[in-house]
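Issue: copy button drops trailing tokens. Both records pasted manually instead:
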Amino acid sequence: MRGDVAPAGVEGHCDPAFAAVGEVFAGLMAGGRELGAAVAVYADGRPVVDLWGGVADSRSQRPWTADTVAMGFSVAKGAVAALCCRLAQEGVVDLDEHLSRTWPELRGDGKEAVTLRWVLSHRAGLPAVRRDLDPMDLVAGQPVLDALAAEPPWWEPGTAAGYHPFTYGFLAAAALRGATGRSLGALLDEHVAAPLGLDLWIGLPDEVRPRVARLEPAEDDEPVDRTDVPEPFEPGSLPERAFANPPMSAASWNAAALLRAEIPAVNAVGSARAWARLYAACVGEVDGVRLLDPAWLAAATTPETCEPDLVQDHNLLHVGLGFRLPAGEPAVTGPGWFGHGGSGGALAGADRDTGVAFAYLPNRLRFGVAEDGHRAQLVAALRDALGLPDPYRPGG
């Protein structure tokens, strides 16, 4: 990046125009506020921030390096959204095709009408299954699909919206396999990662695993064995079924089997650099590649839902074709923002109006209110670098 340098205490490159982002990131890394992390920004199709620091694995003290990759939980949903919209743009899939056309078991109680559009906009009515699952069901995938096929919908599909934490990915994968005969991970590699040269996978190759940052809950915020849910849920309730079936600790996602599997809503593994580059290619051209043309970008970021979230009734679900829109993410640059956050503190997205893309990946996980803190500080610094008002500050 033309000799741009990193702030003291971290590595990489930072354009002087975005020094505010670098300074905040260096501050987060100083004094152990983060274990390890990376942040990346693209502006007008070129990388302007690419920074990393800290420790990728506290057990071995392996440092976070330029080629470290990490899992960002629901940040993965943005990759699924970009892939589905790209394939629809290419005419490979039809967002309004019924999944039941190639998945005949998905029938009854209105499920036969479910489309990929409804899946991406969390309107499929299948955010959870009532049958108890275990982690190996997620790894195998087919047991989850079988459970969904047998599941009475939690509401009439298409009539309401509710966040689908895990099932979003399995349903989207079933739609893509029905249309192409190929897995979502293979399609992501061919249509998104390979054209852009991204270190990004859903279904991690074994040879990449030594580069993966180990996820560790922040000891001062959460016990290591806490199930990754935003708050205690009533046993058997829809939120409990959606977020905690199967029950898993945050640290359990380090297992090789869970990284190797395709659990598309949550287990994409990549670098912050790759996530920022992906989103930059959604809003413009990056080294000759543009993922979404202007018409498809507009369609993907037009609200499909803006109504009470039936899974998390304290939130409003404001989403386009798989991308969260400003009302759905606490840390955004303005009304042109779209992207997706992830449990633990990760965030990736872009702004249609400024042409800027951003990604942040930590491996010390914070949950609940705490998970917004560091990414919000970084995005606030990005707004400052761009000369944008703070949309959350009175008068901003």
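Record 2 (pasted manually too):
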Amino acid sequence: MRMETIAAYLVRKREELQLLNSCLRSQLDLADPMSVTEVVRYKFQINAALRAEHALHDWTVTETASAQTPQEAGPFEFQYDYQRADLNVDGPSFYGEIGNAATYEAIYMASGMAAIAALLLASAQVTKQAEFLVIQGSYPETLELVEGYAPHLRITPLGPILNEAEGRVSWPRILLLDSCVPADGFRQMLRFSRPMLDLLIFDTTCFSGESGRIRCVLGWARKWGIPVVMMRSHAKLDSLGAEYGRLGSTVFVHYKDDDPWMRTKFKELPTKRKRPFDC
């Protein structure tokens, strides 16, 4: 595996800082970062400035939407009375032209964790017990959420059992594929020749909307007739945990010619998912 040098890292981060700084109405006077510590400090300074400008210039845009007109961001339009309960987003598919043979049913929530929490709680209305397969390196807070609030899901580390045609457990089987897992985890999953899965939950947060890995996973799932739910936290612009806004989505993938949702116990999940959960 090719390692990035500190010099190359600082050049890349300088370009990121310039991009973020250009989003400010009054840009900060920042020198080129000379260390990782300076990169972190500058990122959080820009984050604070962006939030401050938003609060000063768009003070009517709050959780309870004091503004009566919809808010716009690029091609997207947001409207709500209380964001965490009735958020409505109108705009093009975030995933662009990926999978022309598929349609996407998108439901938005106030954060990525709210979206995954609502999906997991809704699954309890569909099945009393299920095996929840995870790949090493998955987002730990997602696993903590399952352990603490979804007792009907039994966490099982991903292993050769996914390939076994015989001796399958009687419960439905769900695979969590998280975009933050190492590349080996993706390759491991795509090598399975007989994946016996009832549902694939695909967290795409770390990938761009038109990522080739998303296309690859959707093609693999379609080949084996596996229903797919794509989860996403939309506001993470870097790896420092600095969120410049809050928005999460759940996207149910439906294939036009042969929809695998109709052949699974989870076919009612999109309907259950629309119940107003909050996180």
